[in-house]
Structures are given as structure tokens and as C-alpha cells.
Amino acid sequence: MIHESFDCRYINLGTSVSVEEIGKNPARKLLRYLSLICQVKRALLFFRPDLCYLTISSKGTGFYKDALIVLLVRLFRIKHIYHFHNKGVGINQGRVFDNLLYRLVFKSADVILLSKYLYPDVQKYVPQNRVHYCPNGIPEIEGGVNDKKPVKTKSAPEILFLSHLFESKGVLILVDALKRLKEKGYTFHCTMIGGEGDVTEDQMRKKIEESGLKDYVDVVGKKYGKEKQAAFKKTDIFVHPTFNDCLPLVLLEAMQHSLPVVSTPEGAIPDLVEDDVNGFLVPQKNATALADKLEVLIKDPDLRHKMGSAGRARYEAQFTLERFERRMVDILTQVATKRIGGN
Predict the structure, then answer these.
(1) pTM for the full model?
(2) 340: left (phi > 0), else alpha (psi -120 to 50), else beta?
(3) Architecture category of domain 2-137+322-336 in CATH
(4) For an engineered disulfide with 132, which of 225, 247, 328, 331 has Cβ 3.0 to 4.6 Å away?
């Protein structure tokens, strides 16, 4: 849909080629960055776009790197719009240098945010009339999904965590919550899928064993394609107790598979999970609250089914790839045809 509406040229602004490379190989990244600057300069000189769309980092080294690209675009007086898939502007805006750079970067720029819940992060620099909201969407999986998930009443409920093993995703909080459930006598099984982050698989397994959960929790590493879909299909409850996120696509995948979701009111998650409708939102870093809501779903198969169906309906109504593309086309058209300095 976007290709049909615009003549596009793409340049990948990333200098890390994988999650594992983040924070590593500085010399290689510098060479990539210098090449990137040359690519941008050539595109601005010879393609002469009417609008430059940039997905930039919100803070730290990533922001400084992207800011130089932005200033290059501004030098050529090209209209530009930023699409933020992360947050963190508010963290460093008190620093003199960062504050100055944010003012330069955001001056006269339009911004796309994933949710109204994320506006406070940039409100110091961007007025409401230059902010556009476009939540992510995901494509339907190949073959579709059966949204009439059967009610399971006898076997132990399956709980799924699917994300990289970062402490900020709540992996350690989850283990503490599962320990509380075991101590209450509940039977369940939890599968943890994802690559290593700041928590290694060995550290995770040690925490699980120390918590007496060796027979209750499996850490299985990365899963893709059919293996990942199979994990979703056998799951009864999806859990994501994060305290650092914007709009996790994995929650949309869980909703797509008609799963009730237990998460936190972090970032744009309240747009995805309506508390007590298609899942539960619990306070961040609160293992007791997390255990309490998991307990409710473990005990009530009918509620799991009801919430899972509500999540599937919410995905179909708001978060399909088609809905996302239509929003993006509307926003980009509006900004591309706006006169410079206009509202």
C-alpha cells in the first residue's frame, strides 16, 4: 500500500546487524556509519525526496548517531518526520547538551508515536499538532489462526513467555511469581522462549532451580517459524511482565492466537491489553500481583477462553497489517503535502 502511494528509496540506519551485536564491534560499526552518511548524502543530492521518514533512537549513542543524519537532512531543507519505536527522550532532556540537540532535531519536525501514552516523552519539544499516532500492526500468520481455541479443563495450564532474556522484560519477576504459585499448590507449566540478553540461559536455569521450579519451567532458547507458532498453539496464558517497552509486537501475536495476556501498564501496552477484558495489567516489578492474576487464569479455563476471544477480536479490529498501512499512508500523505511551516 505504501509502495503504491509513494516513490520510495530506503536506507537502513542501523549499524548493528543483530541484537547480540549491540554494544560490540565499535570499529566495524564506525565504518558502517561512515558508509551510511555517504548513502544519505547521495540520496539527498540525486533523489531529492519531498519527505524524509526516519526511525531514530530516542537517547544515548544511538540518538547522537541519528542526530547527525537528521541535521544533514535539515541542511538540505527536506521536510522530515520521525517514527519512534522506542522512548527515552525524557530521561536525558535535563542535560544541557542533550537538551540543545533535542531542540535542533525536533524543530519543525512531525513525529509519529505508537500511542498517546508515549506523548509525555516528547511533549517538551513537540506540540500536539505535529504528533501523529500509529500503533503497529502485524500480518496474519500463514494459514490463519483458529480463534475458537478449545476450553482446556483437565491438563495443567501452559504459560508462555516469549522475549529476549532481559531483566527489564520481567524474567526474574516472573520466576518469583511462579514460585509463589507452586508454593500455593498449583500445577502448571511455563515455557520461556528467547535469546540471551543481560540474563544468560545458565543464569536463568540456576534461578529456576533455586526456586524449586525445575519441573515447572523450561528455558528453550530462540524459536522461529513453525516452532514458534506451535508454542503459541499449545499455550493457555501469555505473560509479559515488562518494565521497559513501547508496544511489544509479541503481545499482538498472543492476541492473534486468542490468548489471555498478563502484562504491565508500560508504554503503549494499555492500548493492547484492556484490563479485565482481554487480560490483566499488573504493577511493574510486583511478583505478588503477577502471581495473583496468573492464579485467576489458572483456576478459570472459561475466563481464559473469554479473554482470549476478546483479544483476537481486538487484534482484528485495530492491529492488522492493513490497518497499520492505511494509517501510515494517511499520515505520510498529510505531512508530504503540508506546506513548510504549516500546521
Answers:
(1) 0.88
(2) beta
(3) 3-Layer(aba) Sandwich (3.40)
(4) 331
